[in-house]
Amino acid sequence: MDPSLFIELTFQSVAFLLIVGFIGGLVSGFIGSGGAFVLTPGMMSLGVPGVVAVASNICHKFPKALVGAIKRHKFGQVDVKLGLYMASTAALGMWWGSGIQKSIKATWGEAGSNLYVSVAFVVVLTIVGLIVLRDAIALHRAGETRGEERVGRLARWVQTVEIPGTMVTFHVAKTRVSFLFILPLGFATGLLASTIAVGGFVGVPGMMYVLGAPGLVASATELVIAFVMGLGGTINFAMSGYVDIRLAMLILLASLFGIQLGAIGTTYVRPYMIKVVMAAIMLIVSVSRAIVIPVYLTQLGYMAVGDGTIGVLKIVSFVFMVAALGIGALIIIGAMVRGHREASAT
Amino acid sequence: MSDTPKPWGKLVFYGLGSAACYVALFANEKSVMASFTRADGWYWLLPIATAFVISYFHGGFTGCFWDVLGVKPRQPVRKDVEQEELEE
Question: Which of A35, A37, A102, A158 has its Cα between 20 and 30 A from that of A320?
Answer without folding.
Answer: A102
